[in-house]
């Protein structure tokens, strides 16, 4: 799982509560990503950030929010507006060369399994 | 639309036999292709990538993948499977314009002793 940490590993919340998932990386990567994984659906991109103080919505951003105040950190908040928040959440990072070259393989953290009841 | 497909939900193989996990892609321009492996309740681990050059790419843990432009495929292979190779495998393609990856739905590999 490289130099990316996610905490906690398991998280339980009551419906209607906001919850924040932590993601920290020490790989000096510029870009960071949040994915959601559900059985049989692969990975779906929630948000991504290319540089500090900038982020973009992915394919399923509704009900989620992020911040990128530091290069090393990209926390994800699952809000009460997310209709089906129970899932496995994965954070990833990659390089983002200004020249546009590079292969951009992403490195993943160990994941956080969120259960909302 | 740019996409990647993994046509098999599960692949079963006996230990010591060769294995193939299939992946086909649809992108505009030249594709950047990746394979990742996921063990239960863990994050994804990078296995290998194709960017340009030789069509046969070698990666971690004895895996390799063959890029076939005419068939738009990037199948993952290993000459001799191990029980410890049992895991979930994802193929991914990079979209042009950014590093955004699009993942397939995954193929579960089960290697029996």
How would you sum up this structure, described in words?
The complex is a heterodimer of chains A (about 120) and B (about 110). Chain A is mainly beta. In chain A, a hairpin with a 6-residue loop joins β5 (about 45-50) and β6 (about 55). The radius of gyration of chain A is 14 Å and the shape is globular. The model of chain A has no long low-confidence stretch (mean pLDDT about 90). In chain A, the strands form 2 sheets. In chain A, strands 2, 4, 5, 6, 9, 10 and 11 form a 7-stranded mixed sheet that branches. Chain A has a 4-stranded antiparallel sheet with strand order 1-3-8-7, with no helix packed on it. Chain A has strands spanning about 5, 10-15, 20-25, 30-35, 45-50, 55, 65, 75-80, 85-95, 105-110, 110-115. With about 110 residues, chain B is mainly β. Chain B is globular, with a radius of gyration of 13 Å. The mean pLDDT of chain B is about 90. The chains are: A mainly beta (about 120), B mainly beta (about 110).
Order of helices and strands of chain B: EEEEEEEEEEEE
Question: N- to C-terminal separation of chain B?
Answer: 41 Å
Q: Please report which band the strand proportion of chain B falls in: under 5%, 5-15%, 15-25%, 25-35%, 35-45% or over 45%.
A: over 45%
Assess the beta-strand content of chain A as a share of residues. 35-45%
Quaternary state of the chains = heterodimer
The biggest beta sheet of chain A, please?
Answer: 7 strands, mixed
Q: Report the total helices of chain B.
A: 0
Beta strands of chain A, count: 11
Q: Describe the biggest sheet of chain B?
A: 6 strands, mixed
Task: Determine the fraction of residues in helical runs of chain B and give it as a percent range.
Answer: under 10%
Which two chains touch over the largest interface? A-B, 28 and 22 residues
Structural class of chain A: mainly beta
* Rg of chain B, alpha carbons: 13 Å
- Helix vs. strand class of chain B: mainly beta
Note poorly predicted spans of chain A: none
């Amino acid at each position: 799982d490289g130099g990316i940490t996610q905490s906690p590993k398991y998280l339980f919340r009551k419906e209607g509560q906001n919850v924040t998932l932590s993601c920290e990386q020490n790989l000096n990567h510029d870009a960071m990503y949040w994915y959601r994984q559900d059985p049989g659906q692969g990975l779906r991109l929630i948000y991504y950030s290319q540089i500090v103080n900038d982020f973009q919505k992915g394919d399923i951003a509704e009900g989620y929010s992020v911040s990128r105040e530091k290069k090393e950190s990209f926390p994800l908040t699952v809000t009460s507006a997310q209709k089906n928040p129970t899932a496995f959440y994965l954070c990833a990072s990659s390089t983002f060369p200004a020249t546009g070259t590079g292969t951009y393989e992403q490195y993943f953290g160990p994941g956080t399994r969120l259960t909302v009841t | 639309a740019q996409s990647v497909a993994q046509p098999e939900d599960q692949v079963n193989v006996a230990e010591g036999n060769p294995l193939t996990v299939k992946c086909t892609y649809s992108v505009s321009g030249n594709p950047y292709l990746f394979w990742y492996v996921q063990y239960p309740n863990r994050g994804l681990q990078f296995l290998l990538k194709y960017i340009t050059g030789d069509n046969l790419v070698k990666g971690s843990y004895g895996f390799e993948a063959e890029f076939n432009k005419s068939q738009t495929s990037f199948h993952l292979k290993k000459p001799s499977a191990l029980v410890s190779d049992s895991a979930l495998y994802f193929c991914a393609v990079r979209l042009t314009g950014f590093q955004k990856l699009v993942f397939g739905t995954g193929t579960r590999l089960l290697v029996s002793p």
